[in-house]
């Protein structure tokens, strides 16, 4: 179902996003039984509210939708952080996946024998090391799933394992927190975005805005030991993230999978190409970006595919 066509740059949809206004506190009043006049007044008020909602522009509706899901993502993050902070020991992996839609979609996955062994391994790695020797921080291990609900997934960008330098990993593939130097692969992603859609190159590498819009930024392995790439590979993470991909393939339709590099391309075997779109290219690393990543136009192609299904496109501008 993938397509090789390209189009003119998509318009930026998120330039108008502002934090939602504060709610006005009201003084509670005693309960009373409404009379006919009150009922008519309420009906008129509801009609006016509906008319006002209907008159919202496309940009305003997108802003409201984005802010609603950003708030949910922040609540999930706080829940994880509280569980880690309030724990007397190491929190079990199953307690760090808190997004309800994924808990339902992956029901029982983290109770399987391989996942229990994986949990014990990660716990032992954290316990036997210093506080910052396993990345990302515990509350961010499932950040990709906690930030992008199952029923919101529009596209999937697969990575390998987390960045292994201090302060880099944040549980979203290719993403780093604001204030951290943007890694070379992400620099090349931004270069392709500029050529493809005319996006200006951001000063940071935090891709949270993509995740909240429905881009699942999923690594194949979700933890790593400090300064040791692939140190947590083949411990069970691959089986779990394969289950995530297969679940999306089986239970959803029309999702765009962006597979960059050989490791990601191998995951195409898990995806039903009759139901989903698979876009493949070279990895954006400095070693391979010139061998097929630059010029792939995956960002505009993703939006074309989404729009054909009547789905709001991704605003890739950060």
Automatic annotation (TrEMBL):
Q: What is this protein called?
A: Uracil-DNA glycosylase
Active-site residue list:
161
Q: Which organism is it from?
A: Stylosanthes scabra
Where is this gene product found?
Mitochondrion; Nucleus
Question: In which domain of life is the source organism classified?
Answer: Eukaryota
| Top enzyme category | hydrolase
UniProt xrefs under InterPro entries: UDG_fam1, Ura-DNA_Glyclase_AS, Uracil-DNA_glycosylase-like, Uracil-DNA_glycosylase-like_sf
Low complexity bias (residue ranges): 1-10
Has keyword Metal-binding?
no
Known catalysed reaction(s)? Hydrolyzes single-stranded DNA or mismatched double-stranded DNA and polynucleotides, releasing free uracil
Provide the transmembrane region boundaries: none
Question: Which ranges carry the Uracil-DNA glycosylase-like domain?
Answer: 146-306
Instruction: Please explain the role this protein plays, according to its UniProt record.
Output: Excises uracil residues from the DNA which can arise as a result of misincorporation of dUMP residues by DNA polymerase or due to deamination of cytosine.
| Family note | Belongs to the uracil-DNA glycosylase (UDG) superfamily. UNG family.
Which keywords accompany this UniProt record? DNA damage, DNA repair, Hydrolase, Mitochondrion, Nucleus
Coarse class of the protein's main subcellular location: mitochondrion
Q: Which PANTHER family match?
A: URACIL-DNA GLYCOSYLASE (PTHR11264)
Q: Where is this region: Disordered?
A: 1-30
Q: Which SUPFAM superfamilies match?
A: Uracil-DNA glycosylase-like
